[in-house]
């Protein structure tokens, strides 16, 4: 029996195109002898469109937009959308290939929880906490994980006291520093600042994408990442290093020109790798993650680790680190997807043991 797999992709997010690329890559990797692939495209305005069951990999992103498909509201998920066209049975697993707000932040995960549908990846809490960089860093601090200095601002406070905000950054963080939207990934809206003029422009840029931003201390360090896979007993991949040819690893370097070097495995000692795995596991468990994350770290010249962040739905594009890390660990792309689907069903089965009446 084939596994009936529902793919959610696109989304009302600045990372819409990243999600489309992820969907393309995943579809190409799925074994059609093992999976029924049922695509659901979410437009940039938030419309949900059900496409026909895929009988073969699609040729391009445009083929996944289904302009003539059946439009249905998310509230129709349970009785209508997630049904097989042949036998009307429910899908076995939903795979949310969504990045950023309205997809990776716990919103869609909450919908799937209410519908009691198995789904790949992190649950509501891990997704929402992992999306909000401020909340995530506060949790990591509580777990005792070392981090660079950071402060955050909300738009209304900044608008009422811009001069005070800039002064606080200069006094508490200093230069260089990074300005980021709190609830966005894929390096969208991120700026590196060396002076107040750049800082002011960076605040304007970041606040276009979120009502809350985070300011982080810039440190001279190597960027090391590791993939984490599992539920209650997570496993870590080999480590990889990102060496951007530009000043930092921005959106274009990640998804458009591949203008960066990915070194796998990273040149670190066994002791450094052991410490990395320990920290990644603590981060995974502190957010109550499940399925997958990519954990990102800084390694300074004196051998000190800082956790930067975790990504609860890392990309699966040809340039993406997460699948490459697992490939070098011995898990090929199709196997990786199958493991994620299995982890989703295992977690769903475990949740069915919970008693909801007293």
Quick summary of this structure?
The protein is of the alpha+beta class and 358 residues long.
For the largest sheet, list the strands in their spatial order. Answer: 4-3-2-1-5
Order of helices and strands: EHEEEHEHHHEHHEEHEEEHEHEEHH
Give the class-level CATH name of the largest domain: Alpha Beta
Low-pLDDT windows of residues: none
- CATH homologous superfamily classification of the largest domain: ATP-grasp fold, B domain
Oligomer: single chain
Rg calc: 20 Å
Q: What structural class do helix, strand and pairing data support?
A: alpha+beta
Q: What is the first-to-last residue Cα distance?
A: 37 Å
Tell me the CATH architecture of the largest domain: 2-Layer Sandwich
Number of domains: 3
Average pLDDT metric: 89
Biggest sheet layout: 5 strands, mixed
Summarize the amount of helix as a percent range.
Answer: 25-40%
Shape: globular
Please count the beta strands (DSSP E, at least 2 residues each): 14
- Percent of residues in beta strands? 15-25%
CATH topology name of the largest domain, in short, is D-amino Acid Aminotransferase, Chain A, domain 1
Q: Number of helix segments? A: 12
Map the helices and strands.
Layout: E1 3-10, H1 16-29, E2 35-42, E3 48-50, E4 70-71, H2 77-81, E5 93-97, H3 107-114, H4 124-131, H5 133-142, E6 150-154, H6 155-160, H7 162-172, E7 177-181, E8 191-193, H8 196-206, E9 212-217, E10 221-230, E11 235-244, H9 251-255, E12 260-263, H10 270-286, E13 291-300, E14 305-311, H11 321-329, H12 333-351
Parallel strand pairs: 1-2, 1-5
Antiparallel strand pairs: 2-3, 3-4, 6-9, 7-8, 7-9, 10-11, 10-13, 11-12, 13-14
């Amino acid at each position: 029996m084939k596994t009936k797999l529902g793919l959610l992709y696109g989304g009302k997010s600045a990372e819409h195109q990243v999600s489309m690329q992820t969907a393309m890559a995943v579809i190409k990797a799925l074994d059609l002898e093992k999976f029924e692939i049922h695509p659901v495209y979410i437009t940039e305005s938030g419309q949900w469109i059900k496409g026909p069951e895929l009988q073969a990999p699609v040729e391009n992103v445009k083929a996944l937009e289904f302009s003539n498909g059946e439009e249905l509201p998310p509230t129709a998920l349970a009785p209508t959308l997630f049904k097989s066209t042949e036998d009307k049975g429910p899908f076995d697993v939903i795979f949310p290939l969504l990045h950023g707000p309205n997809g990776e932040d716990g919103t869609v995960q909450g919908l799937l929880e209410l519908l009691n549908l198995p789904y790949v990846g992190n649950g509501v809490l891990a997704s929402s906490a992992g999306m909000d960089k401020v909340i995530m860093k506060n949790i990591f601090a509580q777990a005792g994980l070392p981090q660079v200095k950071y402060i955050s601002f909300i738009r209304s406070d900044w608008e009422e006291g811009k001069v005070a905000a800039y002064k606080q950054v200069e006094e508490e963080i200093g230069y260089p520093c990074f300005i980021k939207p709190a609830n966005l990934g894929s390096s969208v809206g991120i700026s590196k600042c060396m002076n107040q003029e750049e800082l002011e422009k960076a605040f304007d840029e970041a606040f276009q994408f979120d009502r809350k931003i985070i300011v982080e201390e810039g440190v001279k360090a190597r960027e090391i990442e590791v993939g984490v896979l599992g539920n209650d007993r997570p496993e870590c991949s080999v480590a990889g290093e990102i060496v951007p040819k530009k000043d930092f690893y921005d959106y274009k370097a990640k998804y458009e020109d591949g203008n960066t070097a990915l070194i796998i495995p990273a040149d670190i000692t066994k002791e450094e790798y052991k410490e990395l795995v320990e920290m990644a596991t603590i981060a995974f468990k502190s957010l109550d993650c499940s399925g997958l994350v990519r954990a990102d770290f800084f390694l300074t010249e004196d051998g000190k680790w800082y956790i930067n962040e975790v990504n609860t739905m890392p990309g699966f594009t040809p340039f993406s680190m997460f699948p490459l890390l697992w490939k070098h660990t011995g898990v090929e792309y199709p196997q990786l997807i199958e493991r994620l689907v299995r982890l989703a069903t295992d977690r769903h089965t475990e949740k069915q043991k919970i008693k909801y009446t007293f």
